[in-house]
Amino acid sequence: MTTGxxxxxxxxxxxxxxxxxxxxxxxxxWHTDSDMLSCKTQLTIEPDKPVTKRLILAVAHQVxxxxxxxAPVMLIPKLILQETGI
Length: 86
Prior knowledge:
Elements: H1 8-11, E1 22-25, E2 28-31, E3 36-38, H2 53-60, H3 71-84
Antiparallel strand pairs: 1-2, 2-3
């Protein structure tokens, strides 16, 4: 938000600014103190299971990202799926 020169913290009244430091925005987590967005996900991959097409597909679709924030990272598993012929 800082690079876009939008001063959202100036819009929030001071009595409300003592709210949570992390706010959920469009499925992402906004850290108001550092003005950064992050994506929380829990990948449940068991090391003893073999890597299959189904596992790659499941991991590639575990991340909820309606605005494409994680698109550069999620491109790799999607390209792997494309090469395998799914």
